[in-house]
Design a protein that fits this description.
Length: about 100
Amino acid sequence: MPLAIMSAISRLIGVPAKPINNAEVVLYKGGQEISRYTTDDEFNGAFVFTGLEPGNDYTVAVNAPGYKPAHEDFCGPFTVEASKTTYPRVYLESEDY
């Protein structure tokens, strides 16, 4: 089974939180960029990175049109374990807030 980080990006504001389309998620390991992913426009906000090595130094940066960049509290670090999937939640705040 491949190692992976899988998650969804949601708004910080609003009840219930709604997924964000067309967000760019950049994955870093030890401060070096290793992959990028852009969420689709199907209102699911999901992002997936597969084939990752185990480690506890993964972080993400997230940007989306109409939203402030993800706050560092939501960006990691995240731990990836062998044969497990990591499910971090990243929230973005509207630029209007």
